[in-house]
Amino acid sequence: MDRTNLIFEGREKLIYSTDEPGVVRIYYKDDATAFGGIKRAVIKGKGAYNARIAAIVFSTLEEAGIKTHFIKSVSDREHLCRKISIVPIQVIVRNRLAGSTARMLGVANGTKIPNTVYELRYNDDELCDPMINEHHAVALGLVSYEEMEEMMAVAARVNQVLKALFSKAGIELVDFKMEFGRSLEGELIVSDEISPDNARLWDEETGEILDKDRFRHDLSDVCASYKNVMDRLLKI
Predict the structure, then answer these.
(1) CA distances from 95 to 17, 31, 36, 195, 221 (A)
(2) Of residues 34 and 140, which shows the higher confidence score?
(3) What backbone phi and psi angles, to 5 degrees, belong to 58?
């Protein structure tokens, strides 16, 4: 794998500089990780499916007036994106209680709720991404209260847009993680990715799991499920 002009390597993506100021190239790897990187595997084709899904998601958000770092796809697994300074906060949006939150609260996985739950986590691998609130975020100097309010408003709008998008594909958006970055102009924009790697996606009719939980819990057919999501979105 060519690493010329490599800026950063994450668990599942590579970020390269380009000849254009303020623009980076993001390569989606086939690596899969779970449980803080404890479980690892290479799943052939996963990166290409995630790149295509993320491109559809970001394009849909841009069409809805939500600014993201995405510029365009340049190959089956590469995006050109705006260069950003990442805000080390994960915003997790839950339309059901599932995963770690269901376990924490002692309820069944997938419990339906009358509202939307928003969680914040400090994006720090060494600390295992601890849950925080807006006051912690401001105290740590990560954001201002005004920026936090803006991020939460954008997260609500993103949830609204993406629930509608996935529903058209017969998929329920159970929950998802999103991140923000500051553009070179200092504007907060949606960054990273939204794909089956960081969103729970269930078939609306059968409840079949179509996301990374298939890898986490050894449910098999991981790549086939990602392709299923991609194919459904492409048909909309």
Answers:
(1) 36, 28, 23, 16, 25
(2) 140
(3) -65, -40
Question: DSSP assignment, residue 119?
Answer: E
Host H or E run for residue 110? none
Cα separation, 213 vs 76, whole angstroms: 24
| Mean predicted confidence (pLDDT) in 75-94 | 97
**Cα–Cα dist 36/228, whole Å:** 26
With tokens 């100097």, the residue in question is 141
DSSP notation for 38-74:
TEEEE-TTHHHHHHHHHHHHHHHHHHTT--BSEEEEE
E-state strands within the chain:
6-9, 13-17, 23-28, 31-34, 39-42, 70-75, 78-82, 85-97, 111-122, 131-132, 171-182, 188-191, 199-203
Burial (CB count within 10 angstroms: exposed 0-12, middle 13-18, buried 19+), residue 150:
middle
Do 97 and 117 meet the contact criterion of CB atoms below 8 Å apart?
Answer: yes
Question: What amino acid is encoded at 158 in this protein?
Answer: V
- Average pLDDT of the segment spanning 53-79: 98
Q: Give the position of tokens 């690892």.
A: 40
Please give the average per-residue pLDDT across 176-195, as a whole number: 97
Select from 62, 63, 67, 86 the least CA-distant residue to 13: 86
Q: Which residues pair with 40 in a beta bridge?
A: 33
d(CA 193, CA 47): 12
pTM over the 0.85 mark:
yes
Alpha helices in 144-204 (DSSP H): 145-168
C-alpha–C-alpha distance, residues 155 and 158, integer Å? 5
